[in-house]
Specification:
Helix content is 37%, strand content 14%. The chain is built from ten helices and 13 strands. The chain has helices at 9-30, 37-50, 61-71, 89-96, 141-151, 208-217, 242-266, 295-304, 333-341, 353-367, and strands at 54-58, 79-83, 100-104, 126-129, 154-158, 166-168, 174-176, 183-187, 201-205, 222-224, 227-228, 288-291, 342-345. Strands 1-9-8-5-4-2-3 form a seven-stranded mixed sheet, with helices on both faces. It has a two-stranded antiparallel ribbon with strand order 6-7. A two-stranded antiparallel ribbon has the order 10-11. Bound molecules: pyridoxal-5'-phosphate.
Amino acid sequence: MRAIEMVDLKIQYQNLKPEINFAIEKVLLKSDFINGFEVHYFAENLRNFLQVPYLVPCANGTDALQLALMVLDLPPKSEIIIPSFSYIAAAEVVAFLGFIPVFADVETDTFNIDCSKIEALITEKTKAIIPVHLFGQACDMLKIIKIAQKYNLFIIEDNAQSLGAEFVFPDAMRKKLGTIGHIGTTSFFPSKNLGCYGDGGAVFTHDEVLAQKLKMLANHGQKIKYKHELVGINSRLDTILNVKLKYLEKFNNKRAEHAAFYFQNLQSISGITLPFLAKNSTHVFHQFTLKTERRDELAAFLKTKNIPTMVYYPFALHLQPAFEKYNFSKDLAESEKLCQSVLSLPMHPDLEKDQLGYICDSIKAFFC
Ligand SMILES: *Cc1c(COP(=O)(O)O)cnc(C)c1O
């Protein structure tokens, strides 16, 4: 059996080697590294995949969120609602840009922002909500849209972890996550479902005016070279992603197959709660995250079996020292509880049946 990794990019490269090497060589031969033909071609392909009219590639997923917040021209100290159980990026750019992060608790089953907690956090300074589609599954966009319309808020969807997943509306219509709110963002960090060789990200929208401005902001605020109309940043994509975009759906399906294996083989264990499948979303299993009271013990046991696991995330955002100076809601208990009980199992498209079987048998051995 091959050694088990959380995300095995080496085996993925081995499997795609001729195509990847060919793509890299093409760029090297043209010396067309930054915002070159490959990048434009990729942006166009991803735009088609997402069915969104405008897409601006940028340097990483954190920049994508920063650009999305910059483009809205919000007044200083605007309050932005974000989940308290999540990756740091959204909260960080909110604070970095001089806005106020307002943390909302998450749901215990989906791990996503708890929409029933949002309205209590809204003041006249609230300007936007950043739902984060965590671990591969959608936030309740219907509820978020309702709240945003009622209070005239922008919606920025952080779709770094759920590229390819779809929200399922009550009439069964589906939309790719990231294309439902005003602006969507994503990341191509190597371990993401669509990972590049290096850093990368993108920001996308249905709004032509926002799109033109996003493009300028990502390029030093210029439309015409050396004419800087806005204070922008330098955020460029410079990587090989076209090869893997072709396989994104296949890879996401593989993840779902592996998740089905985990579900089938772990469902009888009483000490763990398996991931919840929301009816209003498809799931692309960026992570397969279970909950158990004996989290640290289980992780240590699996480590002795050479099975890696990860805790996403060990600390709730409102308890991070970096955000100490902000007031926050007292109602964030679920986020804190999850930080004690979540454990993510190895998940990537190239997991093999013998590896999955070994992981499940080891977990059973621990609980029996
Ligand atoms: C990875 C990630 C980001 C940031 O992406 P980078 O490319 O690493 O900057 C933002 N939000 C979430 C939820 C992420 O998982």
